[in-house]
Amino acid sequence: MMPKDRALELKAKLSKVFGDYSKQIEFELLFSALIEVNPHNSTDDLLAWLKDLNHRQYFNVEEIPFSKLKQWHFDKGSGDLRHDSGKFFSIRGYQVFDSRSEAVLWDQPIIDQPEIGVLGILCKRIDGILYFLMQAKAEPGNINTYQISPTVQATRSNYLRVHGGRRTRYLEYFTGEIPITVVVDQFQSEQGARFMGKRNRNILVIDETDNYLELGENHRWFTLGQLKSLMECDNTVNMDSRSIMSQIRYLSSDFTLDISTLLSILNEYQDIVSRSDFWLKSVLQTFTTAQSKHNLSTVRNRLIWERYFCYVDKKPVPLNNVREWSIGEKIIEHRAGKYFQVLAVRIRANNREVDSWDQPIIRQRHDGLIGVMCSEIEGVLHFLIRMKLEPGLYDLIELAPTVQCIKQNYDPGDHPKYLECFKDTPQVFKARQSEEGGRFYRECSTNMIQVVEYNEIEIAPGYIWISLKQLKELVQYQQLLNVELRSLLAYF
User: Fold this and answer.
1) Comparing C-alpha atoms, which of 474, 481, 460, 489 is closest to residue 296?
2) Which end of the chain is more exposed for a tag (fewer CB within 10 A), N or C?
3) Which domains, ranges and CATH numbers included, belong to the chain?
4) What confidence tens digit (pLDDT) does each residue in 254-266 have?
5) What tens digit of pLDDT does each residue of 13-38 get?
6) What is the DSSP letter of 471?
């Protein structure tokens, strides 16, 4: 029997177990996550296609002095680095202070990009299986140039064609021009340490029509299972794709099922079910009546409490007044050699809306670590989540991974809590993941999910155990989970 026929046979058996729930879109998403059956492209074919684009399509990034930046200038008054059109983004100064004493805590440059961009994935059922239309997109900051990106990934200035370039392909599916079914549609935050209040629209839609969709040269169909497998490859699935994937859930009501029966069926189809035993056990737990350690109201209240009693505030300041930072001919950097740099680059490409452009970009000095610890508490998988303050976040504090840091930015002996728990121990998931390549230059963090013994972990202030089911519920709300936590949650 062909793999596709085996997949449809499995889907029919699962439909009987799920009953009427199998008619829900969440069931279609779960089934797509379980398999890598793709008669259009195998997972290996998709990897080879991605690598081939790196050799075949021209994309060049050159570091240049700030004085050579075309269509960018330093403001004569503030020193802020701005685009001549007043669009896209700017590099400004930012000051963080204690709102009670007004004591300044630190200054820094920051990216000010008030525009809300579109990060959109288009899905379609093809021969009974739900596929995701993804794009191989080159970004100036990507370590390996091309990464698997959403169908559409565009700032407002880009899709409004302020640059005078070509129209963004498939944009009409996310602007109301074509009837679609909306599955995910949320404003979500970006990196709060280097963006000032930045949000993007994360949207996932389904084309329910039978219309044929012509593929662009840099677009291919993926199952959700293929995307999750490719997440385990270093620097392959980009941050924006991971952000949208994290908001996909497989349960939208109080529906429950017999896990043992379901696992028995899946065991018969090990040749096409591509998810690990840990993944299956974790995700299928969400379909049971097992209780989380804290109810959802308690979790939300803890976050509100942390936000209300936060006495940190922030305000923009002129870039040329930012303390402890220097502006050179080629680099804006911290005088102690910590944190990040701002530099200028010139990009030439033959596969983007315009063939060349200049821009500032952030370069982190060292790789980061983004890790979450998980443990079963009375048979339910929970994650140790931090309520983390980042000055650029819209509400200052969002739910974050257990550890989210760049170790070299800390003084010896003052490392973040739980950092040592991720040293020299096996992980359920570990991969090097790139940050958003349009604004961050070759920046990478090691992403980890690690199982620990619940009784051996002492809970520090500002941390809380949250179940997977609860995280999948909370991510349905805007700006509760930061982008680093969403990046890890995309694994499930």
Assistant:
1) 474
2) N
3) 3-56+115-280 (3.90.79.40), 59-93+314-364 (no CATH), 296-311+366-489 (3.90.79.40)
4) 888 888 999 999 9
5) 999 999 999 999 999 999 999 999 99
6) H
